[in-house]
Structure formats: C-alpha cells, structure tokens
Amino acid sequence: MIRDKTITVVLPAYNAEKTLEQTYREIPFDIVDNVILVDDLSHDKTIEKARQLGIKHIVVHAQNKGYGGNQKSCYDKALEIGSDIVVMLHPDYQYTPKLIHSMCYLISNGLYEVVLGSRILGKGARKGGMPVYKYIANRLLTMTQNILMNQKLSEYHTGYRAFTANVLKSVDYNSNSDDFVFDNQLLAQIFYAGFEIAEITCPTKYFEEASSINIARSVKYGVGVLNVSLMYFLQKTGLFRFRLFGSKKKG
Predict the structure, then answer these.
(1) 77-130: per-residue pLDDT in tens?
(2) What is the three-class DSSP state of 29?
(3) What burial letters (b/e) apply to 59-97, b meaning 16+ CB within 10 Å?
(4) DSSP code of 115?
(5) How do 85-88 and 57-60 pair as beta strands?
(6) CATH of the domain at 237
(7) pLDDT-derived band of residue 249, with 50, 70 and 90 as boundaries?
(8) 28 inside domain
(9) Domain limits at 137?
(10) How many CB atoms lie within 10 A of CB 243?
(11) 243 vs 54, 227, 246, 248, CA distance in Å?
C-alpha cells in the first residue's frame, strides 16, 4: 500500500512461461498488495509457473479472448478484489517492473489518475531494440493521434499503464474491442472522460520471448488506431456520436 491505497498488478498472460518468473521477481512487493494473472488459453505451462510462484489470483480463460479481452478480465478482477490502483504489466519482461514505484507514487500523491510508461521519451525504444519500422510507425501514428485528439502524448502504444480504480469505473472498457486496438480505445475513453495522463520514461527490451505482432496485424492495428482517433475528433466536435464514448463522465 501507499497512503492506504491497495495496489494491484495485473498480468495479461499468453505463453509467458519463459519470462513470467523474471517479471514477477522484480515486482516491488513493499508496495504491491496483489498480483492477478489472467491466462488467455496459453499453450505452454504459464499457469503451472504462476502457481509455483504463489500468485494468488489466477484467472484462466476457457477460450482465447485476445489481448483486449484479456485486459477486460484483468480489470474486472482487480476491481472485484477492491484495488485502488491497478498497474497493467506485460509478463513477457519487455517492460521493467522497477518503474511501478514511480508510477504508483504519482497516482497515490494525487497528481494524476493515469500514468503511462513511455518507450519514446528519451531513447529507450531504439536502444532497447525496437525495430525501425515499428519506431517510425509509432511516431507517425502518435503525431496524427495528437492532432486529432488535441493531446501531447509521446506515444499511445505502450503496454505499461497504471490507473486508479476511479478511472476504470468511469469508462466502459468492456464495450471495447478484444483485439490490440483496445489499448487505444481505452486511452480515448479516458481523455473523453476528462482525465489527464502522465508519462514517465520507460526502458524496454525486444528479444525472442517478448510478445510482438507481425506486419499484417500491425497494419490492421494502425488502421484501427486512426479510426479511434477520428471517432474521438468527430465526437468532440459534435458531428457524430459513437457508442465508444457512451461512458460515465468524471465525477
């Protein structure tokens, strides 16, 4: 806990057997109260490894629900057990758990209700091995998104995020896609609900066991991201209304 706030780390897992232990061992349990692992029908021994590590809250999908569907289960379970701050950390060890302190203190001190670990601030992305085509796509997409959404994030595509329970309760994340575009839909909902988002520099690692999507799925993701940003722009200007933003407003 920090300032009597219960902190929960959620791990959306898929074939994470090889990297789960290393990720778990670096979680700062001096402040983290709970760890939730949601397994999206892995084909390896992710569940067995999670049990060996003593992870108390394990949710197993009976069928593969996709990256977004996995996150929905993560947040549902985190809210169910009474979490005040929820940190989404990929168990593939691409993001370092050592930033959890910094992210959670920003939230617990009342400065922000959402904090992102950005690979683009500083030189962490390329230094960590992000492929050139992904880096360029990230920069172009982010620039376009910032224009359409009137924001100034360094990137919208990081998988390292921390939220207050209030934020998760204020948006209808369960209406979002079960695919990778879920991340961007959630950020659009958060901005539309009136919350500000902080970013901190996050080193990242690209290696064989780290999760990644192929070029075809990357293109599909990019088109989806642009569509979400355009929907946000049209919603904010009052030209159209979309179900995506039919969530409860802040407060």
Answers:
(1) 999 999 999 999 999 999 999 999 999 999 999 999 999 999 888 766 666 667
(2) coil
(3) bebeeebbbbbbbbbbbbbbeeeebbbbbbbbbbbbbbb
(4) E
(5) unpaired
(6) 3.90.550.10
(7) very low
(8) yes
(9) 7-245
(10) 9
(11) 40, 14, 5, 12
